[in-house]
Design brief:
The protein has 397 residues and is an alpha/beta fold. The protein contains 16 helices and eleven strands. The protein has one domain: Rossmann fold, CATH 3.40.50.1820. Helix content is 41%, strand content 15%. The strands form two sheets. Strands 1, 2, 3, 4, 5, 6, 7, 10 and 11 form a nine-stranded mixed β-sheet that branches.
């Protein structure tokens, strides 16, 4: 019976699967979107040490022509959250989305798409339908994906360091990299962390319903293989965006469901953006990413590597329990911004993070009813946050 429950939970998380041929060419749509806003848009690719081919989107703005100006150019790399994509950083348009705000301030902005999402579903030797393709978490994103992206961006901009902006899981992989590959710390001037999902001791809402099944789902996945959750399919997106558009009688139900996942604070959300957001995201990912977050509740107050169970842990870690990430190695300037109604990055978990990182330069809880997505699609909270952020980024640049 327990195995049946586990299988059902995985299938629910997996949503409705459609083959890659049914997915729209979202990179073209995104390019058109950005161009229509009056900005340039470039598509780049980088291959990680473990063979995943990641797509980066660049919004260069106005390119300075003299060598001295190019050398001084400010560069920013932005990382999305779980099931997200580069669209996260541009969804609410010019003057409001951080990517466009930074371009207007003279930054060369790069948007990383993590393995498994709409834009990064290729591998040098594995098909996305093959066994093993989805066997990754944000651990691999931190030790392989982010370092590869940083090196690629710095090499292509002739810079020695950059600013890094992260949202939710993007901050998780940033802390993984800083912990286990500290040689990259010197390549980061400043980290802007929006709703960082690092400690997950105090999760609330829908996520807590999955926690009791987590270890069984890990055990099952180890036997049958890890696979994708919420794949980006045309029909699924059309269905969700239709139900959740402003004119729909079902939008209040959609907002209630979103609030159950990310936290109360729907009055802060731009309701007109919800339909637009659901046209591009969720963008897909691995169930292992989700399980890794849920496992955090089994070890309160810790930030640890993936727990495979005592037998495999002993083989991999020489211990029956997974080791902690050495967060004391994360020594780049780290600024945290979050909401008080965040179910996925709760204020209590933010306090745990603040107590572990050695170089916190700012920590600010947005006033009002701000949830996990409030800083990305909020009416006012994002504006409040970004003004404070820009002043701090100028200081470190």
């Amino acid at each position: 019976m327990e195995n049946i429950v586990s299988i059902f939970a995985i299938l629910v998380c997996n949503g409705v699967y459609f083959t890659s041929s049914s997915r729209p060419d979202s990179s073209v749509n995104l390019k058109t979107l950005v161009n229509d806003y009056g900005y340039a848009f470039e598509v780049h690719h980088v291959t990680t040490e473990d063979g995943y081919i990641l797509e980066l989107h660049r919004i260069p703005g106005v390119i300075n022509k003299t060598s001295s100006e190019i050398k001084k150019r400010k560069v920013a790399l932005l990382l999305h959250g779980l099931l997200g994509s580069s669209f996260t950083w541009i969804m609410i348009g010019p003057k409001r989305s951080l990517a466009f705000i930074l371009v207007d301030k003279g930054y060369d902005v790069w948007l990383l798409n993590n393995r498994g999402n709409t834009y990064s579903r290729k591998h040098v030797s594995k098909l996305e339908t093959s066994y093993g393709f989805w066997d990754f978490s944000w651990h691999e994103m931190g030790i392989y994906g982010l370092p590869a992206a940083i090196d690629y961006v710095l090499n292509n901009t002739n810079q020695s360091s950059l600013d890094l902006g992260c949202f939710s899981e993007g901050c998780t992989q940033t802390c993984v990299m800083g912990s286990l590959r500290p040689e990259y710390n010197k390549k980061i001037k400043f980290v802007l962390a929006l709703s960082p999902a690092v400690f997950t001791t105090n999760l609330k809402g829908f996520a807590t319903l999955l926690t009791p099944m987590t270890t069984k789902m890990v055990s099952l996945s180890e036997r049958v293989g890890y696979f994708q959750v919420f794949p980006a399919s045309t029909l699924f997106r059309i269905f969700l965006s239709y139900l959740c558009k402003v004119e729909s009688m079902f939008q209040p139900a959609c907002i209630a469901m979103i609030s159950w996942v990310v936290g109360d604070g729907h009055e802060q959300l731009d309701r007109a953006i919800i339909e637009y957001f659901l046209s591009y995201e969720p963008a897909g990912g691995s169930i292992k990413q989700l399980l890794h977050f849920l496992l955090g509740q089994y070890y309160p107050g810790t930030f640890r590597l993936f727990d495979y169970g005592s037998v495999k842990n002993l083989l991999l870690y020489n211990s029956t329990t997974p080791p902690d990430y050495p967060l004391e190695n994360v020594n780049f300037p780290f600024a945290i911004y979050h909401g008080q109604n965040d179910f996925l990055s709760s204020p209590k978990d933010i306090e745990l993070l603040k107590g572990r990182l050695p170089n916190i330069v700012d920590a600010y809880m947005i006033p009002g009813q701000c949830n996990h997505y409030g800083l990305m699609i909020g009416n006012k909270s994002a504006n409040i946050c970004y003004k404070r952020v820009l002043a701090l980024m100028e200081k470190y640049d």
